[in-house]
Specification:
The chain is mostly helical. The protein has a domain at 43-70. Helix content is 72%, strand content 0%. It has helices spanning 6-31, 44-71. The longest helix has 28 residues, at 44-71.
C-alpha cells in the first residue's frame, strides 16, 4: 500500500477524527443544558433513552475503529 501524504491524511482521516471529537463535545454541551423539567407530560425521557442507545452504539463503533486502527500497518 502506498504511504499517505499529509494532504491525503488530512482529507481521508484527520477531518473525520475532528468531526467525531466535535460531535462528542456538542452532545456533552447539550446534555448539560437539560436542567429543567416541564409541568406537562413530554417524550423527553423516551428521547433520552433513544439518545443513550445511539450513543452506546456510536461508542462501540469507536472502540471497533480503535482496534482496527491499531492493527493497520504504518505507512
Amino acid at each position: 500500500m502506498k504511504p499517505l501524504t499529509l494532504e491525503q491524511w488530512n482529507i481521508q482521516v484527520s477531518r473525520h477524527l475532528d468531526m467525531i471529537s466535535s460531535g462528542a463535545k456538542l452532545v456533552a454541551r447539550h446534555a448539560c443544558l437539560l436542567t429543567r423539567r416541564p409541568a406537562f407530560e413530554s417524550l423527553a425521557e423516551d428521547d433520552l433513552r433513544r439518545c443513550e442507545r445511539e450513543l452506546c452504539s456510536a461508542l462501540l463503533l469507536i472502540r471497533n475503529s480503535q482496534e482496527k486502527y491499531r492493527s493497520l500497518e504504518e505507512e
